[in-house]
Specification:
There is one protein chain. The protein has about 140 residues and is mainly alpha-helical. It contains five helices and no strands. It is elongated. The two termini are about 20 Å apart. The protein binds protoporphyrin IX containing FE. The site of protoporphyrin IX containing FE has 20 residues, from α1, α2, α3 and α5.
């Protein structure tokens, strides 16, 4: 079980590397004014999303479900955590849509908007780790 938990945490870290960095790329992408910079951001965003974030997300969920259903670890804290995880998956998918909007030249949002957008995964991480470690209920 400890091996499964170790891999669960490894993939959480992998997923969050992207969840923190991709919206920062959106900030700079929204400020970019020349075609060469924009194309470079498109490549960076696509590789980060499909190469790091997507596998990180899928494997976090696989190992999390394994811990929950395979070892019967759970409780009210886990139900609260799952609600937050569903919100995080929604955020992840929204990032995919934003990548596409940039690619099609349809981005209408400012770099300031992306700076706020960037804060969401921080809040989720704080709450989820407290729920999983402290298990307050
Ligand atoms: C479907 C998604 C997920 C499921 C079903 C799930 C389930 C679980 C379960 C059952 C444990 C074992 C708890 C224990 O041993 O007491 C665990 C541990 C943990 N999970 Fe998740 N998890 C999921 C996603 C996440 C995400 C997205 C994060 C981070 C944001 C996360 C962070 C952690 C951490 C830090 C631990 C270690 C807690 C400890 O042992 O002290 N999990 N998870």
């Amino acid at each position: 079980m400890l091996w499964i938990k170790a891999f669960h945490i490894i993939f959480v870290v992998t997923w969050f590397a992207g969840l923190f960095y991709l919206p920062r790329l959106f900030v700079y992408h929204a400020m970019a004014e020349d075609a060469v910079s924009r194309q470079r951001f498109e490549v960076m965003e696509r590789k980060l999303y499909y190469g790091i974030m997507a596998p990180g997300a899928v494997l976090t969920v696989v190992f999390g479900l394994w811990l929950w259903l395979g070892y019967g670890i759970g409780g009210a804290w886990l139900h609260a955590k799952l609600v937050l995880v569903v919100a995080l998956i929604g955020y992840h998918l929204w990032c995919g849509k934003l990548i596409n909007d940039f690619k099609q030249g349809r981005n209408t949002r400012s770099h300031v908007w992306y700076r706020w957008f960037n804060e969401f995964p921080t809040v989720i991480l704080l709450l989820v780790v407290i729920l999983a470690v402290v298990k307050p209920f």
